[in-house]
Amino acid sequence: MGQRRPWEVEDGLWERIAPLLPVTERRIRYPGRKRLEERRVLNGILFVLCTGVPWEFLPQELGYGSGSTCWRRLRDWHQAGMWQALHELLLAQWRAAGQLDFSRAAVDGSHLRAMKGGAKTGPSPVDRGRSGSKHHVIVEALVPPSAHPLGDPR
User: Fold this and answer.
1) Which of 13, 64, 66, 128 is deepest in the core (most CB within 10 A)?
2) Nearest 5°: phi and psi at 66?
3) How many Å apart are CA 144 and CA 98, to the nearest integer?
4) Cβ-count burial of 6 within 10 angstroms (0-12 exposed, 13-18 middle, 19+ buried)?
């Protein structure tokens, strides 16, 4: 038996993700083509993120749908807040299982200049005359940064 591919979502993780996904009702009068199963699309999204292949080159043979379908679903799920909710759910489960160890944590940040500004930007932390934003990353001791972002708590 072969090893599981990192972009294929296991059943236990899928049971946590499925309730977080937004429900899209099918039109009655002009229903159009049936939507591809959410789990298959998620596998397609993770395939692109794991391999680095451009969206338009997602292989159709894998059965994950087209790259544009996966990209649109990723955008829709992000706008619905699914990724944030999943992140919070997994962190809560890791905390409850005692799997997070912040005794040795690394913190890093980066500054991005916001060329066009926007609602989420403010004065640049580097140059107050320009708009910008600062991003921070915290990595705890037990989960290496290269670990799968949707991995199962141990």
Assistant:
1) 64
2) -80, 160
3) 16
4) middle
Query: What is the spatial distance between Cα 35 and Cα 53, in angstroms, rounded to a whole number?
Result: 23
**Is it the case that residue 80 has pLDDT exceeding 60?**
yes
Cα end-to-end distance, the chain, whole Å? 22
121 or 72, higher pLDDT? 72
Q: Judge contact between 133 and 109, C-beta under 8 A.
A: no
Coil, strand or helix at 133: strand
pLDDT above 70 (res 109): no
User: For the whole prediction, is pTM greater than 0.90?
Assistant: no
pLDDT higher than threshold 80 for residue 153 = no
With a cut of 50, say whether residue 95 has pLDDT above it: yes
Strands of the chain, DSSP E? 106-113, 122-123, 131-139
Cα 98 to Cα 70, 140, 151: the distances in Å are 34, 12, 16
